[in-house]
Amino acid sequence: MTTVGPLLRGWRERRRMSQLELSLRADSSARHISFIETGRARPSQAMVLRLAEHLEVPVRERNALLLAAGYAPAYPETPLDDPAMSALRAGIEQLLTGYEPYPALVMNGTYDVLAANRGIALLLHGVAEHLLRPPLNALRITLHPEGIAPRIQNLGQWRPHLLEQLERQISMRGSQRLRELYEEVSAYPGPAPEHSADPMHPFALPMRIEHENQVLSFISSVSTFNTPMDVTVSELAIETFLPADPETVKALMP
Q1: Cα separation of 9 and 84, whole Å?
Q2: Which domains does the chain have, with CATH numbers?
Q3: pLDDT tens, position by position, 20-58
Q4: How far is CA 89 from CA 77, 106, 179, in A?
Q5: Would you call the peptide bond into 199 cis, given omega within 30 degrees of 0 as the criterion?
Q6: Looking at residue 200, what is its pLDDT?
């Protein structure tokens, strides 16, 4: 069984932080941090949580650190369909509905789609049935050759953008499931990467997608919850697609 010391050292090295820097942030000493990492000292529960906070360890992995140190997990993991989550679900549903007719969806930490509004249907038009079976995965649906990819006009720009985003999340979270997802979707065939700026949208890269003989342009925005105290909530992400030009606005208005 892995002890807490090597795990903490791994997170510290992932954040490119020295023992001295971490000790100053956590109001400790470099000597004590060294003793914890080598197993010569057992950190208190409060110290584990303090170090995890300064190392920006995701909530799920904070529980793993506590278990490795011999303590009970501090954060529950409540299913989204649990009655205790009713207020949260209602708020999310209201947000998704209010965003119509523009697409919006809710994903978990591995890009599985948990909820979506009616606007998402225009993105899923023509997607192969096997990709729409639960659990729907947003990255798989987007980049699979039988998914949305053939309709994305600037796939050479959008695909590298998504893969780079996923790489950053793997670096930040150290998730094996995300790493496996990256290996899968990065192996799908795709055009050569294009990194040139879009002169029509210099402020953000749009996704330009063909729909019913016209091209719609969307800018994606992802929102998460501040100070989550539950594993499930900490991994929720709400992605909304904002029209990037007047033509898209006109096309989607009833």
Answers
A1: 36
A2: 4-68 (1.10.260.40), 83-252 (3.30.450)
A3: 999 999 999 999 999 999 999 999 999 999 999 999 999
A4: 15, 11, 29
A5: no
A6: 62
